[in-house]
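Lecture notes, part 5. Sequence design as translation. It can be helpful to think of inverse folding as translation between two languages: the language of shapes and the language of residues. The source text, in structure tokens, appears below.
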């Protein structure tokens, strides 16, 4: 039997209806820039997808640029604003210590180009305080860039509070919505959000499609990052993939339609993880009120890479951000106050509504003997493991 895939924050399985749509669209030939029947059909498909994605964020269709994914969207947001911010003498950026490397790298490139950067920390659960962030905003702040949901801990960052606090300020607000689009959608319709990055493969669409959703003023300020024929999108030249754009639109539509049912499945899997945490004498790394499709677990005295190998035939799990796979400790966990050694003992379990039942009792049996616990814990853990085995 194949191991259960529990790394959905790295990439989700494609939703069957999305796959069906994609395969059907890929059978159709035509360049959306061509002025003939096949070209017009592809252009109509592309623009219908653009309208649908825009509507999910409360925007007009011209404010959506399709990209290859969130990394490109983030690069377009940051790099595309650079020249405008320099002209406006707004060379100060506010960001957080828990951002994905895609945002951190984009901000670092601006810093190397002469921008000043203020980094807001987090508490021990990975939460960022909106008031502290807003206190860092200055008269010359040109950009505030923050994620919505953390990919490692599920912590929800206060984008609504930050958006309200920036009303009347000229700073652009960029939100990395890679882990929240289609999951925690309502806050993403706030008109004060100027740039929203999302990635299809985080919400059950294929790898290779994403979008940057803009406000009107951000769209007017943005400079393209690529050169070439502009055609349908002045911000992103080249021939867009109408089938991939449609797949992203379908994925967002299904997420809105099936949200309640999906959340119920997330919670069921979360309870299985929490029983496993108790049975192993481990602890949850992150907030209790985070998004319910991910839990990071610090194993007592057991290296995460060793743990992953011990259960590799049962479950496939992550050990941090899949986009930064290395033995370097997670910068998110370090920002939360974990030591490098503690960070090395953290496994990330993430799932979705398509995740099948997980053999948690077998996971406990494999990992339990390798977890280092003191004598005072042993009786409690024996009881917790009996509970884990019966699944109650």
């Amino acid at each position: 039997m194949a191991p259960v895939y529990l790394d959905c924050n790295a990439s989700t399985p494609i939703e069957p209806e999305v796959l069906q749509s994609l395969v059907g669209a890929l059978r159709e030939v035509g360049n959306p820039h061509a002025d003939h029947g096949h070209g017009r059909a592809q252009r109509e498909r592309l623009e219908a997808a653009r309208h649908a994605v825009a509507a999910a964020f409360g925007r007009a269709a011209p404010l959506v640029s399709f990209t290859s994914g969130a990394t490109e969207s983030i690069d377009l947001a940051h790099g595309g604003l650079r020249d405008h911010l320099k002209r406006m003498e707004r060379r100060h950026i506010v960001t957080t210590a828990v951002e994905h490397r895609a945002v951190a790298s984009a901000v670092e490139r601006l810093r190397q180009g002469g921008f000043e950067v203020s980094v807001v920390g987090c508490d021990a659960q990975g939460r960022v305080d909106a008031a502290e962030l807003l206190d860092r905003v200055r008269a010359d702040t040109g950009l505030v860039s923050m994620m919505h949901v953390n990919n490692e801990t599920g912590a929800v960052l206060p984008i609504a509070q930050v958006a309200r606090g920036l009303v009347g300020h000229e700073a652009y607000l960029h939100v990395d919505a890679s882990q929240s689009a289609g999951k925690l959608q309502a806050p993403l319709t706030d008109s004060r959000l100027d740039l929203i990055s999302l990635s299809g493969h985080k919400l059950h669409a294929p790898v290779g499609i994403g979008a940057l959703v803009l406000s009107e003023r951000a769209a007017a300020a943005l400079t393209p990052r690529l050169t070439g024929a502009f055609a349908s999108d002045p911000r992103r030249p080249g021939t867009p993939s109408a089938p991939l754009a449609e797949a992203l639109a379908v994925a967002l539509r299904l997420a809105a339609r099936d949200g309640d049912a999906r959340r119920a499945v997330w919670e069921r899997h979360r309870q299985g993880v929490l029983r496993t945490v108790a049975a192993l004498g481990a602890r949850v790394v992150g907030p209790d009120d985070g998004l319910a499709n991910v839990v990071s677990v610090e194993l007592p005295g057991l290296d995460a890479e060793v743990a992953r190998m011990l259960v590799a035939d049962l479950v496939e799990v992550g050990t941090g951000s899949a986009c930064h796979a290395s033995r370097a400790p997670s910068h998110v966990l370090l920002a939360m106050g974990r030591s490098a050694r503690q960070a090395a003992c953290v496994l990330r379990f993430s799932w979705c509504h398509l995740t099948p039942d997980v053999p948690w009792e077998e996971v406990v049996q494999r990992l339990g003997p390798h977890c280092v616990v003191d004598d005072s814990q042993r009786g409690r853990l024996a009881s917790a493991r009996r509970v884990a085995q019966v699944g109650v």
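The translated text above is only one of many valid answers, since several sequences can fold into similar shapes. The chain has two domains: 4-12+259-390, 16-257.
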